[in-house]
Amino acid sequence: MPKRVLTGLIVSDKGDKTVVVNVERKVKHPLYGKIIRRSKKYHAHDEANEYKAGETVRIEEIAPLSKLKTWKVIERVNTHATPDRVDVDA
């Protein structure tokens, strides 16, 4: 069975080798049909303590490491990427 991969924002990096990642998803309300946001926090393993609060990361499901940690951080998602320069002839 493939491992689940989620993308979210790090809200805390205070624990040793642990980050807390807030993952938001959008769902349609069953009765009213309005799109609403649902969020959940996941504790993820960060072996080298290299990720800081405010970064967007991708996390992957793993075998449990502790009571709360069943995810590990795979990579940083570059949300502030600048597009390549495009020269426009005027």
From TrEMBL:
Q: Can you supply a Gene Ontology BP term from the record?
A: translation
Q: Which InterPro entries match?
A: NA-bd_OB-fold, Ribosomal_uS17, Ribosomal_uS17_bact/chlr
- List the transmembrane segments: none
Could you tell me which CDD domains the record lists for this protein?
Ribosomal_uS17
Which UniProt keywords are listed?
Answer: Ribonucleoprotein, Ribosomal protein, RNA-binding, rRNA-binding
Which is a Gene Ontology cellular component entry for this protein? cytosolic small ribosomal subunit
Example of a GO MF term: rRNA binding
Q: Which superkingdom does the taxonomy of this entry point to?
A: Bacteria
Query: Tell me, how does this one assemble?
Result: Part of the 30S ribosomal subunit.
Instruction: Tell me the function of this protein.
Output: One of the primary rRNA binding proteins, it binds specifically to the 5'-end of 16S ribosomal RNA.
Give the family this protein belongs to, as stated in its UniProt record. Belongs to the universal ribosomal protein uS17 family.
The name under which this protein is listed is Small ribosomal subunit protein uS17
Lineage here is: Bacteria, Pseudomonadati, Pseudomonadota, Alphaproteobacteria, Sphingomonadales
